[in-house]
Specification:
This protein is of the alpha+beta class. Helices cover about 15% and strands about 20% of the residues.
Length: about 220
């Protein structure tokens, strides 16, 4: 008799994706990492939508695929929150942004962090704080991740009010000395009353005769 057919073996189960720790929290403020190669910023990676992001060579197991042979399929993870305070989204150390941690996921070539004193290889599966200005290197990849320093906060003082508009020039008027000349009347010369009366009498058709008016009328009546 013919031996029974051997059923085909099931395909290997896909490796489970890494799950973030319980203390991981979603950030309340925007968080990003700069992708830098040769001192030049290539792009900015936004890391504000989830509690954690995995970097690795496998597109199935990583949120950001790193096409480098020295990078493991699931190489390292960036996690928001802090294990010391149960993941509360608050500042730690000298950071003004949310706490950010790097965890090596048991990679072959290692994960490295430079906080200003040189590259240091991280212990696997141990969260390490990533301060602002720190650099991250995965394996031998020459592209590094840099956490940018926070921008300067806006001033709380309101901007100064704009200067008032300049008043239009007033029309040029007469000077004060001219006003005095036009308003002050010239002095009137003294009037000689006797001379005025004499001039008035001479202008009459019959000049006045001093003391002779009554005698003339009597002489006429006698004729």
């Amino acid at each position: 008799p013919r031996p029974p057919a051997v059923p085909p073996s099931p395909p290997p189960a896909a490796a489970a994706r890494w799950e973030p720790p319980e203390w991981a929290v979603a950030p309340q403020a925007p968080v990003s990492l700069d992708l830098v190669r040769g001192g030049t910023k290539m792009q900015s990676l936004q890391l504000s939508r989830k509690r954690a992001y995995v970097f690795g060579r496998s597109r199935e197991r990583a949120d950001f695929a790193v096409p480098d042979e020295s990078v493991s399929r699931a190489h390292a993870a960036i996690v928001h929150g802090s294990p010391a305070d149960g993941g509360r989204d608050g500042g730690d150390g000298d950071d003004s942004e949310a706490p950010l941690h790097l965890i090596d996921l048991g990679s072959t070539k290692g994960s490295f962090l430079d906080t200003g004193a040189g590259w240091e290889r991280l212990s696997p599966h141990k969260p390490t704080r990533v301060p602002c200005g720190a650099k991250i290197k995965l394996g031998d990849c020459d592209t590094v991740l840099v956490r940018p320093s926070p921008s300067s906060p806006p001033s709380s003082l309101p901007p100064p009010p704009p200067p008032p508009p300049l008043a239009p020039p007033e029309p040029e008027g007469p000077r004060f000395s001219d006003m005095l000349q036009t308003t002050i009347l010239p002095s009137t010369p003294a009037v000689d009353v006797a001379a005025a009366r004499k001039a008035k009498a001479e202008a009459l058709p019959f000049p006045e005769v001093e003391g002779g008016g009554a005698g003339a009328e009597g002489e006429g009546e006698g004729e």
